[in-house]
Amino acid sequence: MVVVWALFAIDTILVATNSVLPVDVPVATFIQSVPWGPVTLVFDAINLTGGYPQAALGVLVVVVLFIWQRRSGYLTAIGAISSLLDNLLKELLARQRPTSALVHILEPAPGYSYPSGHAVFFTWLSFMLAFFLGPHVRPRYRWLLWAGAGVVIALTCVARVWAGAHWPSDVAGGVLLALGWSMFVLWLAERWPPLPRWKWFQRGARPPEGQPRNQPRADSRVPK
Fold it and tell me: What is the pLDDT of residues 109-133, one digit of tens each?
C-alpha cells in the first residue's frame, strides 16, 4: 500500500509540474497506432460509461454486496470515495486534456484530465469485487478473479488513451489512486474493526479462521 501511494504521489507531482510528461505522447501515439480490431467495440463500451451509467453501476454493485454480505457492501461504498478524491484532484490540478495537435481525438471530453475518472472507477470496482468474491471461490481458481480484474483495468486505461480523452499518466494516476484508497479502506477495517455492538455493520462478515459463525457471546456463559 505504501508503494502504491508513493507512486501516486510521484505521478501527481510530475503532472503538477509538467503539462505533458515525456512518456505521454509516445505511449499515446503507440496505443492509437495499434490495429485493435474488434477490441475497439470494448473500448467504445467503456468510454460510454462515463457519468450516470458509472454511478448507476456503482450503486448497483454496492447494493448487491450489501444484501449478500453487509460488511462487504459498506467497505465497497467507502472505497467509492476514491471517485470524490478524483474530482477534487481534477479541480486542484486543472490539467488540460490531450489536444488534437499532439494526438488523435476520437472522443472530445469535458472537464480536466488528471486523474482519469474511468480508471478510478473501474479499478475500485474490479479490486473490491475480486477481494470480496475471492474467499468464496476455490483457492486454485482465485487467480482468475484477479486476472479478470486486471484485464478490466488494463482495457479501461487503454480505452481512455485510445480515445484521446486522457494521457497515459492520467490513467496511471487513476489506477494508483483507486488502488491505494481501496487498500487503505481494507487495511483500516482489519486494523480497527467495528465495535461488537455495531451489528448493522458486521452482519454477513466471515468469522476468523476456525471460529464458528454463530459462536455464543462470552458473557452469555457467565453464570449470574
Answer: 888 999 999 999 999 999 999 999 9
**Nearest alpha carbon to residue 46 among 106, 99, 89, 87:** 106
The model's pTM is: 0.82
Contact between 21 and 99 (Cβ < 8 Å)? no
- Which pLDDT tens digit goes with each residue over 83-106? 889 989 999 999 999 988 888 888
CA gap 110, 195 in Å, rounded:
44
* Residue 97 pLDDT: 92
Percentage of residues of the chain with pLDDT beyond 90: 59
| Burial status of residue 162 (CB atoms within 10 A of its CB: 0-12, 13-18, 19 or more) | buried
Asked whether the beta carbons of 132 and 77 are under 8 A apart, the reply is: no
Rounded Cα distance, 39 and 119, in Å:
18
- Cα distance between residue 180 and residue 205, in whole Å: 23
Residue type, 69: Q
Rounded-to-10 torsion of CA 134, 116, 89, 123 = 0
